[in-house]
């Protein structure tokens, strides 16, 4: 099985940014743990702070991978383009958020990703990525 985790803006700051919300572990550290935990899964990882690059990556992998785990971060709530990209590809997408977006600001309650996603996982910290991988197995 071939899965890719795609992270959006500011997630490159995990471990430094608002540790009370996002924890103190970097995503690179966590990704290595996932690779060890899921040895039978070919896991890839991509992160960008740029909306167009995220759309390009979705187009690139959206016909060849078995699954996409997407944390579009703030673009979840603003990007019709990312929502349309997911609608246009064949690979199923699971939307993941580290925090409970419904316990935060009102603008975070709207997702342009969810209507086109296989499922949504939020509020379980980094463990949400683990749960998303398990959803594909």
From TrEMBL:
Q: Please report a single Pfam family linked to this protein.
A: DHquinase_II
Chemical reaction(s) catalysed: 3-dehydroquinate = 3-dehydroshikimate + H2O
User: CDD domains, from UniProt?
Assistant: DHQase_II (cd00466)
List the GO molecular function terms.
3-dehydroquinate dehydratase activity
- Cite the active-site annotation: 22 (proton acceptor), 97 (proton donor)
Q: Tell me which UniProt keywords the record has, alphabetically.
A: Amino-acid biosynthesis, Aromatic amino acid biosynthesis, Lyase
Task: Site Transition state stabilizer: list residues.
Answer: 17
Q: What class of enzyme is it?
A: lyase
Which E.C. number(s) belong to this protein?
4.2.1.10
Pathway in which this enzyme or protein is active: Metabolic intermediate biosynthesis; chorismate biosynthesis; chorismate from D-erythrose 4-phosphate and phosphoenolpyruvate: step 3/7
Which residues are recorded as binding substrate? 71, 77, 84, 98-99, 108
Q: What InterPro entries does the record point to? A: DHquinase_II, DHquinase_II_CS, DHquinase_II_sf
**What does the record give as the function of this protein?**
Catalyzes a trans-dehydration via an enolate intermediate.
Q: How does it assemble?
A: Homododecamer.
Q: Fetch the PANTHER family from UniProt.
A: CATABOLIC 3-DEHYDROQUINASE
UniProt cross-references to HAMAP family, sorted A to Z: AroQ
Q: Which family does it belong to?
A: Belongs to the type-II 3-dehydroquinase family.
Q: What is this protein identified as?
A: 3-dehydroquinate dehydratase
What is the species listed in this Swiss-Prot or TrEMBL entry?
Polaribacter marinivivus
Recite the lineage of the species. Answer: Bacteria, Pseudomonadati, Bacteroidota, Flavobacteriia, Flavobacteriales
């Amino acid at each position: 099985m071939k899965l890719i985790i795609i992270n959006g803006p500011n997630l490159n700051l995990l471990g430094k940014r608002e540790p009370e919300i996002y924890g103190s572990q970097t995503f690179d550290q966590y990704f290595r743990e996932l690779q060890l935990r899921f040895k039978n899964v070919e896991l890839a990882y991509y992160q960008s702070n740029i909306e167009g690059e995220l759309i390009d990556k979705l187009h690139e992998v959206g016909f060849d991978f078995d699954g996409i785990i997407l944390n579009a971060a703030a673009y979840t709530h603003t990007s019709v383009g990312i929502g349309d990209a997911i609608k246009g590809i064949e690979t199923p997408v699971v939307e993941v958020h580290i925090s409970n977006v419904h316990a935060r600001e009102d603008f975070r309650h709207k997702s342009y990703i969810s209507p086109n996603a296989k499922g949504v996982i939020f509020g379980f910290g980094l463990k949400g990525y683990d749960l998303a991988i398990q959803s594909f197995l």
